[in-house]
Amino acid sequence: MRTKVGIVGAGPAGLMLSHLLHLHGIDSVIVEKRSREYVEKRVRAGVLEQSTVDLLHQTGCGQRLAVDALVHQGIELLFDGHTHRIPMSELTGGRAITIYGQQKVVHDLTEARLAAGGQIYFDAADVAVSGIESATPRITFTHDGRTVELACDIVAGCDGFHGVCRETIPPAGRRIHEREYPFAWLGILADVAPSTDELIYAHHDRGFALHSLRSPEISRLYLQVEPQEQLTNWPDERIWDELQIRLAHDGWSLKQGPILEKSITPMRSFVCEPMQHGRLFLAGDAAHIVPPTGAKGLNLAIHDVYVLATALAAWYDGGDETLLASYSATCLRRVWRVQHFSWWMTSMLHRFPDDDVFAQRLQLSQLEYVVSSSAAATSLAENYVGLPWD
Ligand code: RFL
Ligand code: PHB
Description:
2 domains; D-Amino Acid Oxidase, Chain A, domain 2; eight-stranded mixed beta sheet; 12 helices
């Protein structure tokens, strides 16, 4: 089999890349190791930046988004028992964030690809990439019991942090930059109306907590926990008790309901530089991970593939390699900005095991500054809603 662009992974990056290439008239095939059902049920991100939303609309994938999504113009920071609102839209010339679950983005993009005749191999086993230093890289995999070899001009590694593509770059061809944090997030999805109109990011002596949501009926909440924590230590009642303590503030109460899903996510910052080797281009979590405190991972993945699709269109359309050659550098500029913002939000809001009173006072001072200085609040707001794309 042959295609122009072979894409490994049907997450937001792989699906959006395939969709954008199709709009440029460029063939692609997606190879995904999980089932369609699994990919569409995986609970993850919920906050979309303005530019991500704009791209979904501009490329014809915004019908359900227009109906179901919730637009938020501010967030709340809770510390010392009081909430303080950051009026993001006011501070950023009207930009906002949109609450729309990642599963819905994945579902909408999958539908768009399949409706346009796009080819996605779900349940592909033994996926391997070879020949990335040649002009004919290949993706091989097993599907329905037969071995498939897909010859491509380009391979896009959109297979997430645990994928196989990044490892095909020879060690001398990549530099890894990494930070692990001494905590994880326990996240729940709960069948209860959110107790807040806007997201609440809470700094607390017992650790960070976040109240987010998915719809007017479904809440999404997170707790900072130990890095090696097991879900078995967290029966539903303990989760709600801890959320009640960390999110408590005057005149407010947290509504509880049945927990539909729970999971624990380790926190890390990770960058692979460069994001390209020969004919292999990495995009999204395959190339970089940010701690979720800034709500950026999915948005960064969408930015990467927008840059890649534009570069591939210029290349196929007349052989201009300039944009492809600068793909990695263009993406990494944004990646490092977002890395800094995500690290900064994480550092300001979490409890670190070796924190002394001095470190806690510094965090509180930073929080007070952010909510009282319009310069500092604007800096948070413009990064949170997403700096404009180049
Ligand atoms: P994905 O979504 O991991 O997709 C990769 C796909 O590749 C498949 N795959 C393979 N396929 C074939 N062969 C192999 N060998 C393969 N290995 C893997 C996988 O099955 C999968 O389908 O990566 P992508 O597309 O780069 O998208 C990145 C985002 O998923 C991620 O950055 C976000 O979820 C991060 N994130 C958030 N991002 C935001 O922008 N806003 C948020 O509010 C936000 N909240 C979050 C988050 C991530 C979280 N967790 C669970 C990590 C909250 C949480 C709790
Ligand atoms: C979410 O709704 O899942 C969410 C919101 C904000 C974050 C991370 C995750 O910073």
